[in-house]
Specification:
Two copies of one chain form a homodimer.
Chain A lengths: L2 H45 L7 H15 L7 H9 L9 H14 L7 H13 L1 H5 L3 H20 L2 H10 L2 E2 L1 E3 L3 H17 L19 H36 L5 H20 L13 H7 L8 H15 L6 H19 L3 H17 L2 H12 L4 H13 L11 E2 L4
Parallel strand pairs in A: 1-3
């Protein structure tokens, strides 16, 4: 055991402790600001329901902003993943305010989008500015970006471990780079603390601890695996539909700002029609993040097609170019789909909602481990093995592709 | 989304559900039997302390057994890892009784060895018998072996998720093969259930839930990282010392059974001398698994050199050829080292003992994720981020090599 190698490791430790702490302060503060802005935007939209009529204009504004300022960062999460695999040029700082404003505008006027994309991109863009300050080398840059992704994810959802593992797991389908564990872990852990330090909390979905699955264990496990398969196929259908709609729009409409404009028109018309038909169909629940309906999914039976409504609204929003991310809508789709499957599979609502919450996302993003750990952080450690099984099954059925096109693939899956 | 691909996936699901269940029944039952045998052997040795005088003969017997029946399986865990990377021939079934008997004999007469090697090798050997029964192809064989490792590890420690991740993580240093997640996860989860179904339980180390770290968070995190570095260096020293002693013995003593004989003589003489000097030094605590002292490490301050005693006895036992495994002694070394560091770092005993428990092993085995999840399964989810940080730091300082020589390495670490 040579002393020089230990001294080198200590220098590495000091360097990455400093860099990861800086990444955490930047990304955690950005997430805190973003979460507060989202809360305000959501409260506003829920108070003034007519704002959805302006969604086409909001879409045009978002598309126009990206056309003027963001052509090189349009790819969002995929651009970050590409930069980590093959570092070329520093992510421009303006990506952070650009994605922040676009997401808040998207939510304010009722697009059905998420928030992890925004947090991850702000984390990545802010982290990458350290490249200038410290004149980082190529390999260090890719580690800083990974730490930024981990920090953004951890702080926006309040799940430090899941955030760290997400940053390690999202780069590849089917394998994982563990060497970056220290920077990612420290950045995730601290970023979550920074967000909490700003006084920003996270939703608690469970009203009581999750119980064990119902019935004999082998039958419960069969039910969980079956649900996992359905969750995985749903995640796959979501990724396919979103990419498909985006490609279809691009092929037909050359002027980018028109695409989210048309998406906004479609959503507003749909909301209007549903309102005119009246009564049964409460479509406002499908706008924005949908935290409220998600909480319901853990407690009471919902309409069996509730997940499908969110699916359509989200594909319509993201596929036409609104900004924010896929994850929170996937949580919604999973939780409500789990809610719908619970009576069929004779399992408790809360358990199936919790499993769907993480497993649809695990399938769509090819990140079964991060999602398993996320389930333990959000719903308690007892769910660990069940979540792992559901996420593994979902991952198996989610197909070769996913929501992040830039993920590298092994030859064998 | 083509129907044929989904049908193929369903067939894959059915096949691996069946195979993983069979692996789980075999490995879980073997672990249950093994744990009961270990309990009996430990109780016996603690009642009849003179049995340690027979340790040289026990060592000779173990060495002779392997010389007659086990030359091709001598490499133990490393042989399994090699077979997964490069499948050649089926692991002989006799490995299971061979490692079982050798381990129980080693424990009965007081060698300081573990139990994960035995559980993992029984799991692997039993699982590999399915290769004949189902005429599995090469790739399937390597999956079955991974499932066997996961099942053995999960059932012997009662930590299903950590077992599953261990099976995925142990093959490589620095990356992880996630494709096998479903078979490994199902086998681990069910094997743990099978062991419990046989009425075999596991030690609970905590008497009360772990609290938060003491003092301001940033100072506590510095303390945890510093402890992680020490844990990693200790794991590294352990791997180096064990391999070094084994190589040294092999170069000097050609007749294999003589090596554990000499190791047994050394240990017995040491125990005798310590008894003659009397009073202070209670060396019987270093024999066998050492569950009792480990439980103490979570509750009361111990002698600062307690970890060193276990270190010496274990290197002396494993390096000369006793059988069992490294993990439980590494738990002991880590927990008591954490106990010794706690007052220096001004942190609670239980927290530092829990972190040392997993982090020395994480460093020595290059499995930081499995160890993080193990900490959550054994000590509660709150420890997750701290365990992750300690394991990541330990992993960073554990060097290029580890207790499992057959692990493949990436070029860059």
């Amino acid at each position: 055991m040579e002393a020089t190698s230990i001294i080198n490791q200590l220098r590495y430790l000091a360097k990455w402790s400093l860099l990861a702490s800086l990444v955490a302060v930047l990304a955690g503060s950005a997430s805190a600001f973003f979460l507060v802005a989202l809360d305000v935007a959501t409260a506003w939209r829920e108070s003034y329901r007519w704002m959805v009529w302006l969604l086409p204009l909001a879409g045009f504004a978002v598309g126009w902003l990206y056309l003027q300022l963001g052509r090189e960062v349009e790819a969002g999460n995929n651009m970050l993943i590409d930069e980590i695999h093959d570092p070329k040029k520093v992510v421009p700082l303006r990506l952070a305010p650009l994605i922040l404003c676009s997401t808040v505008v998207s939510h304010l006027f009722g697009a059905s989008v998420g928030r992890e994309g925004t947090a991850v991109q702000m984390g990545g863009a802010l982290a990458d500015q350290l490249t200038h300050v410290f004149r980082l080398r190529r390999e260090d840059r890719s580690l800083v970006l990974m730490a930024g992704i981990s920090a953004g994810f951890a702080s926006v959802f309040g799940t430090p471990l899941a955030g760290a593992i997400f940053g390690l797991e999202v780069l590849f389908v089917g394998r994982m780079r563990i060497t970056a564990i220290y920077p990612c872990m420290l950045a995730a852990l601290l970023a979550d603390q920074v967000t909490r330090w700003w006084g920003v909390g996270h939703t608690h979905f469970l009203s009581a601890p999750l119980g064990a699955p119902a019935g004999p264990l082998w039958l419960a496990l069969c039910a969980i695996v079956a649900a996992g398969v359905v969750f995985g196929l749903t995640g796959r259908a979501f990724a396919t539909a979103t990419h498909g709609l985006a490609a279809w729009m691009k092929a037909r409409i050359a002027y980018a700002p028109l695409r989210p404009f048309i998406g906004g028109v479609a959503i507003a018309v749909f909301v209007g029609l549903a309102g005119a038909v009246g009564g049964g169909l409460e479509v406002h629940r499908y706008l924005g993040l949908g935290i409220g309906p998600m909480v319901e999914a853990f407690r009471v039976p919902l309409d069996w097609w509730d997940w499908l409504g969110k699916f359509v609204f989200t594909v319509g929003s993201l596929g036409t170019g609104f900004k924010g991310g896929e994850v929170t809508p996937l949580f919604y789709i999973g939780a409500t789909l789990g809610n719908a499957l619970a009576p069929l599979l004779q399992q408790p609502f809360a358990l199936l909602a919790a499993l769907g919450f993480v497993a649809v996302f695990a399938g769509a993003a090819n990140t079964p481990l991060a999602c398993t750990v996320m389930a333990m952080e959000m719903f308690g450690p007892e769910i660990g093995p069940y979540a792992a099984l559901a996420c593994a099954a979902a991952y198996m059925f989610s197909g070769q592709s996913g929501i992040y096109r830039a993920q590298r693939r092994d030859a064998a899956r």
